[in-house]
Amino acid sequence: MRSIDVWARMGLLLLLGGALSACGLVRDYIQEDRKSSYALPAFTHEAGDWRTERVRMRDGVELSTRILLPKGVERAPVVLIRNPYDLRFLFELSCDLFVRYGMGCVLQDVRGRLDSGGEWWPLMNEQADGEDTLRWLVQQPFVDGRIALYGMSYLGGTALAASAGQLPVEVKTIVVSVFGTDLREVLSERGLMPHELLTAWAAYMPGRESKRSAGSAYRKMLAHRPHLEADVASFGAPLPFYREWLTSLQPGGALWQRPETEALRQSPKHLGIPMLLVGGFDDPFLPATLRTWESLATREQSVIVVGPWNHLGAQGGAGVKVTGIKDGLEQWGTVIPWLRHTLQGVPLPYATGRALIAGHGDPGFRELPTWPPPTQEQVLFLDAARAVAAPGACASSSLTSEPDSTPAELSYRYDPLQPWKSEGGARGIAFAFLRGDGVEPGPVEQTWPCEREDVLRFLGAEAVRDERIAGRARLRLRVRSSAEDTAFVAKLVDVDARGRALHVTDGAATLRWPTADTATLVPYVPGSEREVEIDFHPTSWVLSKGHRLGVWVSSSSHPMLSVHMNTARPWYEETTPVVAQQTVVLGGEGGSRLAVPLEAPITPASAAR
């Protein structure tokens, strides 16, 4: 059977909606397609009938919980999924697939959403409710003593939160896609908020039911000043959880002092069971996914899979496609064998303690001991000399391998009322549910005019061979500003022989939060010189022979990131923006420079999984 493209598949499911639950023929078709597309083994069981129970939590709140077992089976290993989304039928389909391999499935509405009681407060109740649900589950006669926690995105967060406490011995594994345990970098880019992630999601998920006009609410929130009151402007009442996010963007915010948040962050260090992690290089949760893997106590028994995917498991952008892999957030070809192994003892067809990586430009998955792999740091200096540009490329200054001994300066004017429009990147999920209002993520072609004056472009020499960037690039900028505080935003671009520039990765820093390890905000005197270090989003990118690496420096990328208002007040409290004169210092001792982690040499790809 010909595999359905991931976007066509999502469109089909959304079109059919709840009818999927009632139509066995549609379910059969979808599951057969999954089996064929991912080369899964033959089904062993048929699905039984759903039944619903109300499970009481420790504070008396009852959560709606649905149970599905294989037909004719009274006891089975069980997969637990805890869900906040109105698209319940999508996860019913996941349960239906598990059941066809002899596993039971428990699908629960989280507190404050759908048919469950209680108040909706994202993530804060998931540890206690997960523990209580597991305590109930291990006592159920249909459970044979083996349980897996499973979820994608927020559902993965509920699985990780449940693991932050004392897990019952019956829990044998955790499978999580596009989420992680340390969310500090995900929620705050040096004090800037990823609107396309958090504000868009809050507009879609403000209360018990998802907001159907979320796009309109999102646009209204973006336009309102002060942004701290944008919730009232859009919904008529405050969203307490969103306000807590805003006021926790700076170091040491109240959200990071909560015991639930700290327990989640520390949980991988204490986990005693193997984990399967799935991430995407164009997914905003990748830093958290990687930190979970890096701190995982059972890493030798676990596996991480990272592909060139966005938050829906699709490859975005034009012209950079990895053809030797299967798109799709679920990655059933890896997940189903993992669950059958950990819950049923079926031999695992791939090694543990490994990273399966497919980056932009790779021909397929590579199996590595870990990721990022060993790299050599290439240092490129920002130089005021004019670069020889490819035909059609914007005029640029140079990226050079040798520093210019003569100091130089380049300046631009940054007006917060005219921010640079986001094009591509990995910080957004609005595209997934705001019906065209979201920014397309991934390696998107850059289309803003070369005449735009609030950006400094630097362009390197042509690559003499294929080179793979693997990990985090870092940009050290010596800067001055006329503002009391401001932002510097940078993106790496891949410029081909025709001058077409594709987004590779990006990052940001502010003057008062100049480095990742800044513990408290550092006051800034306007006009003084300061070094800021921009840590780019992790990436795996093949820069092809003849292509050039570019770095573009500006002060905004909206709405992927909130607009800095150029004052010392938090941007979300400010009503009056200030125009700033920005200066980047080049050359001389300690001049501005870019450090790029290069994996050498490029190794052949393994067989696609």
Description:
With 609 residues, the protein is α/β, with parallel strands linked by helices. Helix 5 (126-137) packs across helix 6 (154-162) and helix 8 (198-204) crosses helix 9. It is built from 14 helices and 23 strands. The strands form 2 sheets. Strands 11, 12, 13, 14, 15, 16, 17, 18, 19, 20, 21, 22 and 23 form a 13-stranded mixed sheet that branches. Strands 1-2-4-3-5-6-7-8-9-10 form a 10-stranded mixed sheet, with helices on both faces.
List the helices and strands and how they pair.
Blueprint: H1 6-16, H2 19-22, H3 24-37, E1 51-56, E2 62-68, E3 76-83, H4 88-99, E4 104-109, H5 126-137, E5 143-152, H6 154-162, E6 171-177, H7 184-187, H8 198-204, H9 214-223, H10 230-235, H11 240-246, H12 259-270, E7 275-280, H13 286-294, E8 303-307, H14 332-344, E9 354-357, E10 366-368, E11 376-386, E12 397-400, E13 408-414, E14 456-462, E15 467-471, E16 474-481, E17 487-495, E18 501-510, E19 530-535, E20 539-543, E21 548-554, E22 580-586, E23 593-599
Parallel strand pairs: 3-4, 3-5, 5-6, 6-7, 7-8, 8-9, 12-14
Antiparallel strand pairs: 1-2, 2-4, 9-10, 11-12, 11-23, 13-22, 14-21, 15-20, 15-23, 16-19, 16-22, 16-23, 17-18, 17-21
Short account of what is shown:
With 609 residues, the chain is of the alpha/beta class. Helix content is 21%, strand content 25%. The radius of gyration is 24 Å and the shape is globular.
Tag the structure with descriptive keywords.
single chain; 609 residues; alpha/beta; 13-stranded mixed β-sheet; 21% helix
